[in-house]
Amino acid sequence: MRIIADKTCIVIEEIEHFDLKQTLECGQCFRYECISDNEYLVIAKNRTLHIKQEDNILFFYNSTMEEVQSIWCPYFDLNRDYGTIKKWLNERDNLIGEAIEQKSGVRILNQEFFEMLITFIISQNKQIPHIMQIVERISERFGEYIGEWNGKKYYSFPTPEVLSKATEQDFLDMKAGFRAKYLVDACKKVVSQELCENELRQMNYGEALEKIQIVKGIGEKVGNCILLFGLGRREAFPIDVWMIRILERLYFDEPVKKDEMQAFAKEHFGEYGGYAQQYLFYYARDNRVK
DNA sequence: TGCCAGGAAGTCC
DNA sequence: GGACTTCATGGC
């Protein structure tokens, strides 16, 4: 991997184990727009990013060398060796290989805690396009203006302080449905420091998973998503409907309970659970397994 | 129309 | 402590 400052953009060459489309569209990210093939506008980190990939070259159009190094490389998890991760998983069994092969360009984004907290509370019993709509409404109404692209205005994801001003009715108006009261509770507990990002980061995985479930509407699955995508806990293994389908197909001969799957994943994938989960999840969803 | 969606809480026994 | 129901909303 090599970073170069070109005349009009920042370029990263010789990039490996990375596919922009797969990484954005695998179901972990809810704020991006496809401009053309392998070219996207990403809304994250209180700014927009116009980014494009051609083969193993990445172009950052509206950014700086400093920003690419300090913000976007960590965001896209580009400093991590995915070759080692895939090798470890492939040596663990011969069942996950097809998913890794097909989705080999997926990286786990390092997104922001509060945004993931709110987003995955919304995600329960909802399809991804609709989650994206609600997150966009929240940002438009409570976030700050961060720029315009193709005549459309974009807004940052709001801070806990600002979003805590939203009422249950506000969230209902933004079509959050029965999750509205959960969102109010989440904001309240973050602002009051009852739920503190830094404390969660210092806890071990089990403690953090238990702690985050003090928020109403967060159970084991949503909690694991927040830990994986918003707190960098790569051992987190969220099990949703797609994971139940693919795990049953690959690893079990008969229907098993979620608890048993969770225990299996912990024992089998260990600290690499999050990567295994994302390859399998995207593979299962994209191929509409069972 | 009925069924399902990156589920969790409430209620029943 | 497990199984069943309910909770908004939208896409198919």
TrEMBL record:
Keyword presence, DNA damage: yes
Alphabetical UniProt keywords: DNA damage, DNA repair, Glycosidase, Hydrolase, Lyase, Multifunctional enzyme
Major enzyme class: lyase
Protein known as: DNA-(apurinic or apyrimidinic site) lyase
PANTHER family: 8-OXOGUANINE DNA GLYCOSYLASE, N-GLYCOSYLASE_DNA LYASE
Gene Ontology MF, one: damaged DNA binding
Superkingdom of this protein's organism: Bacteria
InterPro entries to which the protein is assigned, alphabetical: DNA_glycosylase, HhH-GPD_domain, HhH_base_excis_C, OGG_N, Oxidative_DNA_repair_enzyme
Catalytic activity line of the entry: 2'-deoxyribonucleotide-(2'-deoxyribose 5'-phosphate)-2'-deoxyribonucleotide-DNA = a 3'-end 2'-deoxyribonucleotide-(2,3-dehydro-2,3-deoxyribose 5'-phosphate)-DNA + a 5'-end 5'-phospho-2'-deoxyribonucleoside-DNA + H(+)
Coiled-coil positions: none
Family: Belongs to the type-1 OGG1 family.
Location of the HhH-GPD domain: 122-285
CDD domains according to UniProt: ENDO3c
Annotated transmembrane regions: none
Taxonomic source organism: Anaerosporobacter mobilis DSM 15930
Key word Chloroplast present: no
SMART domains from the UniProt entry: ENDO3c
Swiss-Prot/TrEMBL GO biological process terms: base-excision repair; nucleotide-excision repair
Record EC number: 4.2.99.18
